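Fig. S4 source data, part A: sequence.
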Amino acid sequence: MFYKDDRLALFIDGANLHAAARSLGFDIDYKLLRQEFERRGKLIRAYYYTALLDSDEYSPIRPLIDWLNYNGFTLVTKPAKEFTDPAGRRKVKGSMDIDLAVNAMELAPRLDHAVLFSGDGDFRPLVEALQRQAVRVSVVSTLRSQPPMIADELRRQADNFIELEALRDVIGRPPRERDTPPAPVTTET
C-alpha cells in the first residue's frame, strides 16, 4: 500500500496511540516511527496531537513533547480541561479531533497517502473526505487489545489497516518500569 514516491503525512492522536501501545505492552520509539515512514515514502509532515494540563507543575508528557518538537514533528497542543463529574471524580477532557481533521483536510491537496494513528470511530468521516480527494488512508491501531482499540467503522473505511502489534519490532521499545528504583551506582576507589 505504500509507494516510494508517495507524498505522505502522519497524523498521530497522541493519547489514542499511547493507550493502544500500552494495551499491547510496549512504548513507541518516535525516532524509529519517523524513520519507518520516511522509508515508506516522502514524508511531508508528521503531526502529533495532545492536550496538556496547565495545572500540573510537571507533566510526564513534557519531555516527550519537547523531544518531538526538536526532532521534526509538528506539535499541536491545547490545554486540557479539568472538571469533577457528578460522582465527585476528577476528570480531564481534551479532544484534539477537530484540530487533526482540519490539518488533514488542509494538507490533502499535497498528499498521496495519509497515515492516521488512532482507532477513534469519530475519524471515519475524515477518512471518507480524504478519500474523495484521492488520498489513500492507512489507519494504525489494534484489534489485539481487549477490548479492541479500533472502531470497526473506521477500519472498514480505511484503504489499509495496520495492526500496531505488527509494528512492535519496528517502532517499539519495552515499557519503562515506573516503580522500580534505579540500580545503585558503584564506583571504584
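Fig. S4 source data, part B ends here. The chain has seven helices and ten strands.
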